[in-house]
Specification:
The structure is a single chain. The chain contains 3 helices and 8 strands; from the N terminus they run E-H-E-E-H-E-H-E-E-E-E. An 8-stranded mixed β-sheet has the order 7-6-5-4-2-3-1-8.
Amino acid sequence: MIVVESGPLAEMKAHALAIYPDECCGFLYGTEQTDSSRMITKILEVNNSKTGDKRRRFEISGKDYMLAEKFALENDTLLLGIYHSHPNHPAIPSEHDRVAALPYFSYVILSITPGTIDHIRSWQLNDLSQFEEEVFSPAHLNQSI
């Protein structure tokens, strides 16, 4: 399960809406709980460095990955994953998303249509390098975590 606090969730939504119709992207930070659930307490927006059509793809530069790791170390937090938007498409990872994905990370996808977030889902790679959906929940629905 991945639980996202209200502040970071609002920031992700605002980022996706601001970048639309292009895909936005950023990093997810937080803690892992004893039950293996993840609590996202901070996000860090990054530039979609994809050359060409950013409406269908996103890319994060190697430099941004290094800065993300540095941020985690300096702020005593864990880099737990990546979020990105799917403009005018469902929050289901594409084959491109799967091939670029890293083990361990959570991948939060925001499905966005003009002016609104349609739905949000989260995914992780399994042992066969295929995506499996993980339960996604805003923090206010899980006060016990």
